[in-house]
C-alpha cells in the first residue's frame, strides 16, 4: 500500500519557520494525509512533539538523517 | 478573544531603546498561533513604538544583520496573531492610531485585564 505524501523542505530555516510552515501546509491537506518535513533546526524534535500534542495531529516518525537533517512525518487528524 | 478557545497573551514593553528585544514576542506568538492557540500581543510602555509605520523596515534584532522587524510582524499577522495597543500607551509615545501599521486593534485596560484573566498564559517581555 502506498500513501501519497506531501513534502516540505525547511532545511536551514530556524524556529519558528518549520512550525509555521508545517501548520500552513497542513491547513491545505485533508484528514489522514501525510506530510514529510525536512529540517535542520536542532529544536525540531521537541517542537514537533509539542505542536502535534497541542493541535491533535499525529506525529508518525522523527528520524535523524545525515548532515544534521531531521525527517519528520506527521499525519493530519 | 473568545472564552472557549485556549489562548496565550504576550505583553511587549520594549521599543526602539532595545532593538535586540523586538522580534522574540512576534516569533513566539507566530508559533503559538501555528499551534492553533488564540494569540495576541499587547504593546504598552515603549512597545507601541515598534508599530509606528516605517519603523519595522528600519530596525531588526541583529541590527544590520539578519531579518528586519517587518519580517517578524508580517509573519505574526499572517499566522493570525492579534496586535493590541491602548490609548494611554499611544499618548505616552506621541502616537495616534493613524500612525500605526494596519491591523492593530485598540483596546483599553479593562479589555486587557479581561484577556489576561482568560488566557492560559501571559508572557511579559
Q: What is the top-level CATH class of chain A? A: Alpha Beta
Largest sheet of chain B: 5 strands, parallel
Fill in the CATH topology of chain A: Translation Initiation Factor IF3
| CATH architecture classification of chain B | 3-Layer(aba) Sandwich
**How many individual β-strands of chain B?**
5
Order of strands across the main sheet of chain A: 1-2-4-3
Q: How many structural units, i.e. domains of chain B?
A: 1
Can you describe this structure?
The complex is a heterodimer of chains A (77) and B (125). With 77 residues, chain A is an alpha+beta fold. Chain A has a single domain, classed as Translation Initiation Factor IF3, CATH 3.30.110.40. Helices cover 30% and strands 32% of the residues of chain A. Chain A has 2 helices and 4 strands. Chain A has helices at residues 17-27, 44-55, and strands at residues 5-10, 34-39, 58-64, 70-75. A 4-stranded mixed sheet of chain A has the order 1-2-4-3, with helices on one face. Chain A starts with a strand and ends with a strand. The mean pLDDT of chain A is 93. By secondary structure, chain B is an alpha/beta fold. In chain B, 30% of the residues lie in helices and 20% in strands. Chain B contains 4 helices and 5 strands, in the order βαβαβαβαβ. Chain B is globular and about 40 Å long.
Task: Give a quick precis of the structure.
By secondary structure, chain A is α+β, with helices and mostly antiparallel strands.
Question: Notable features of this structure?
Answer:
heterodimer, A: 77 residues, alpha+beta, Translation Initiation Factor IF3, 2 helices, 30% helix, B: 125 residues, alpha/beta, Hypothetical Protein Ychn, Chain: A, five-stranded parallel sheet, 4 helices, globular
Element layout with pairings:
The complex is a heterodimer of chains A (77) and B (125).
Chain A lengths: L4 E6 L6 H11 L6 E6 L4 H12 L2 E7 L5 E6 L2
Parallel strand pairs in A: 1-2
Antiparallel strand pairs in A: 2-4, 3-4
Chain B lengths: L6 E6 L11 H11 L3 E6 L25 H11 L2 E5 H6 L11 E4 L1 H10 L2 E4 L1
Parallel strand pairs in B: 1-2, 1-5, 2-3, 3-4
Helix pairs in contact in B: 1-2
Amino acid at each position: 500500500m502506498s500513501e501519497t505524501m506531501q513534502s516540505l523542505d525547511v532545511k536551514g530555516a530556524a524556529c519558528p519557520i518549520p512550525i509555521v510552515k508545517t501548520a500552513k501546509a497542513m491547513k491545505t491537506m485533508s484528514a489522514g494525509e501525510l506530510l514529510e518535513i525536512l529540517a535542520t533546526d536542532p529544536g525540531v524534535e521537541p517542537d514537533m512533539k509539542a505542536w502535534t500534542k497541542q493541535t491533535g495531529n499525529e506525529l508518525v516518525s522523527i528520524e535523524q538523517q545525515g548532515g544534521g537533517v531531521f525527517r519528520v512525518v506527521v499525519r493530519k487528524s | 478573544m473568545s472564552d472557549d478557545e485556549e489562548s496565550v497573551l504576550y505583553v511587549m514593553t520594549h521599543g526602539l531603546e532595545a532593538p535586540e528585544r523586538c522580534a522574540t514576542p512576534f516569533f513566539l506568538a507566530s508559533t503559538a498561533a501555528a499551534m492553533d492557540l488564540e494569540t495576541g500581543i499587547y504593546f504598552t510602555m515603549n512597545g507601541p513604538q515598534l508599530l509606528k509605520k516605517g519603523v519595522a523596515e528600519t530596525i531588526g534584532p541583529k541590527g544590520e544583520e539578519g531579518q528586519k522587524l517587518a519580517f517578524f510582524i508580517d509573519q505574526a499577522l499572517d499566522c493570525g496573531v492579534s496586535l493590541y495597543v491602548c490609548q494611554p500607551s499611544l499618548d505616552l509615545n506621541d502616537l495616534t492610531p493613524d500612525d500605526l501599521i494596519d491591523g492593530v486593534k485598540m483596546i483599553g485596560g479593562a479589555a486587557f485585564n479581561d484577556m489576561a484573566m482568560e488566557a492560559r498564559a501571559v508572557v511579559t517581555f
